[in-house]
Amino acid sequence: MIQSDYDPGIAAEHAAELAEKGLTFMNVDVFDASNFWMLLLRFAFNLLVCWIIIQFFYYRKSRRRDYYFTFMLFSVTVFLLLFLLQSIPMQIGFALGLFAIFGMIRYRTETVQIREMTYLFVIIGISVVNGLSMDVPHVSVAVANLLFILVTWLLESNKLLKHTSAKVILYEKIALIHPAKYSEMLADLKQRTGLDITKVEVGHIDFLRDAAYLKIYYKAASDEINTIDSITRFP
Fold first, then answer.
1. Using one digit for the tens of pLDDT, what is the confidence trace for 139-192?
2. Which of 39, 125, 143, 114 is nearest to 78 (CA)?
3. Which residues, other chains included, contact 219 with Cβ-Cβ below 8 Å and sequence gap of 6+?
4. Helix (H) or strand (E) holding 122
5. 3 state SS of 96
6. Helix or strand or coil: residue 86?
7. Is the pLDDT of residue 234 over 50?
8. I need a surface site. Which of 113, 150, 199, 207 has the fewest CB within 10 A?
């Protein structure tokens, strides 16, 4: 009689090992359930946090749909990039340099204001935290994201910082720029602009054209950000 070398125990152990590894193609897992659900949950959480900051803090004042579009896509791109590359050995310098390069972008068609650059840096930072913190406890990650939201809310609200708008204007009544006539100049500017001006600074003075640049500080009627305050002359 021919003796069989078949061992049910070894076969069952081998089958369990294959089932645990899952289906592979070119030595890469076709589907990993735990990684898949982690991707969806982290992606949804990161998108929610970034949306809250952009929708309720940035867009409420600026009303800039172009930057809304930019911030959201930056968030999605950076998160997916870091999440999918987390298995590749990377030093912290590479991770920091990655979003620092994006954060230093200056668009050629328009100079990006410091407020927009700050929000861009915050959105990229949140995405980096959520994309690289796979081994960090979920509670710690959630608290870190809540701190982002809390600090942004405090700085954007009038509870901590009182917002004062500023505008640069070209003033032709050069006789009123004398310090002794400051109150007269202030009254004239209030009457002509209709703004609640609190302070005036005299800048460049052109005696040949009898004009001077003034920077006025005023209390805005709403919380919206004026995006053209920095324009000082006509093209």
1. 888 898 999 999 888 888 776 666 677 888 999 998 999 999 999 999 999 999
2. 125
3. 164, 165, 195, 196, 198
4. helix 114-132
5. helix
6. coil
7. no
8. 207
